[in-house]
Automatic annotation (TrEMBL):
Pfam families to which the protein is assigned, alphabetical: Glycos_transf_2
UniProt keyword list: Glycosyltransferase, Membrane, Transferase, Transmembrane, Transmembrane helix
Protein family per UniProt: Belongs to the glycosyltransferase 2 family.
Residue span, Glycosyltransferase 2-like domain: 41-172
Signal peptide start-end: none
Highest classification ranks of the organism: Bacteria, Pseudomonadati, Bacteroidota, Flavobacteriia, Flavobacteriales
The protein's name in its UniProt record: Glycosyltransferase
GO molecular function, one term: glycosyltransferase activity
Domain of life: Bacteria
Transmembrane segments: 6-26, 279-299, 305-323, 335-359
Source species: Gillisia hiemivivida
């Protein structure tokens, strides 16, 4: 029995390490540059985001880019969102407004509102972010747009979260976001892109219409970003960008239950990914949870503990190498020393989310 447990531990750890080695594709990636400056339409869809719009739209309007417009989409808000948008429209001629009324067939669906925003756009290069997002620099549009070259029609950027040094939840959210970015950037480098984040995502209108928009998953409340990329992304048309000037930061949840609800929606959407993506993501998660359960069990049972400890250290060194290089690219270095604790906490939080989703469905995007 002891030899069987040790052998299984070695096997599951090997699977986990192979994923980490695969993630070197992003960790060691070099940023490509170009001088492309296509006209850009920045699209911000907002539902009850009046205060965030006041704070963050100025960061978009201050972008150093020669030709762009900002499409503000009011998704049937009940606060002062529409009035705030109208104010920006009056102040700046680059701002254009789409006011979405409640529609009986599409009520509460962000994809419907986004589709109207895309149809309003004058430019074929579309750049998406959220109302609570702030570009890290005034070169955000420039960095994202420069990747539209040759046959590249989809650009995946990093949408991180603002830091709160005294909050464990903040670190957990940012760690989960970092890990997700490592995965979707790496998958894209492998030639099998599976998702992007609407906080920082760009694609062409030609690609949008070639995919018939969100039609194939319009019935699913969430997934305007990841399901679209999962459907449309290929080895040939998808590129990643991780230059610090291309990063956006959002306001993270400050309440654990609110964050859990947000992650439940994301997990519920992931079941609609292509089979190969679901298999790979599930394999990584199973290898993670299996590693920690077997590690703790073997150490408690005192089974070949020097070998077990040596395997743990080897895995940790490989993991830290990948995460260090990735965190350095994405300016998340303060998370490194907490990685083992954050990893274990996140694994079992995800397990509880999977269990909750089996018995009840999460609610709408806002």
């Amino acid at each position: 029995m002891a030899i069987f447990l040790l052998g299984f531990f070695i096997l599951i750890t090997l699977v986990n390490i192979l994923f980490f080695i695969g993630y070197f594709s992003f960790a060691s990636a070099k940023e490509s540059t170009s001088n492309a400056t296509p006209p850009v339409s920045v699209i911000v869809c907002a539902k009850n985001e009046a205060e965030n719009l006041k704070d963050f739209i100025p960061f978009i309007l201050q972008q150093n880019y020669p030709n762009f417009e900002v499409i503000l989409v009011n998704d049937a808000s009940v606060d002062d969102t529409l009035e705030v948008m109208e104010h920006f429209e009056e102040l700046d001629s680059r701002v254009r407004l789409v006011n979405v009324q409640n529609n009986e067939a599409f009520w509460g669906k962000k994809k419907y509102a986004l589709t109207l925003g895309i149809k309003k756009a004058k430019n074929s290069t579309l750049l998406f972010t959220d109302a609570d997002c702030r570009p890290e620099s005034n070169m955000w549009i420039s960095q994202m747009a420069s990747n539209f070259q040759q046959n590249k029609t989809i650009v995946l950027g990093y949408g991180g979260y603002l830091k709160n040094k005294g909050s464990f939840l903040n670190k957990l959210i940012r760690y989960e976001t970092l890990l997700t970015a490592i995965q979707y950037f790496s998958f894209a480098k492998w030639g099998i892109p599976y998702m992007g984040v609407g906080r920082n995502l760009a694609y062409t209108s030609q690609e949008f219409y070639a995919q018939n928009g969100f039609a194939t998953h319009l019935h699913i409340r969430s997934g305007d970003d990841d399901l679209f990329v999962n459907q449309a992304g290929t080895k040939k048309n998808t590129v990643i960008t991780f230059n610090r000037a291309s990063i956006t930061r959002s306001i993270p949840k400050t309440d654990f239950s609110a964050w859990i609800l947000q992650k439940r929606r994301h997990v519920a959407t992931a079941k609609f990914y292509k089979k190969k993506h679901k298999f790979l993501l599930a394999s990584f998660y199973v290898s993670q949870i299996g590693f920690w359960i077997l590690l703790i069990s073997l150490l408690l049972l005192n089974i070949h503990w020097p070998i077990v400890l040596g395997i743990f250290i080897l895995r940790l060194l490989i993991q830290y190498t990948v995460y260090y290089k990735s965190a350095k690219k994405l300016d998340e270095m303060d998370l490194l020393w907490l990685i083992p604790f954050l990893e274990v906490f996140l694994i079992f939080t995800q397990l509880s989310i999977f269990s909750m989703n089996v018995f009840s469905k999460p609610t709408n995007w806002k």
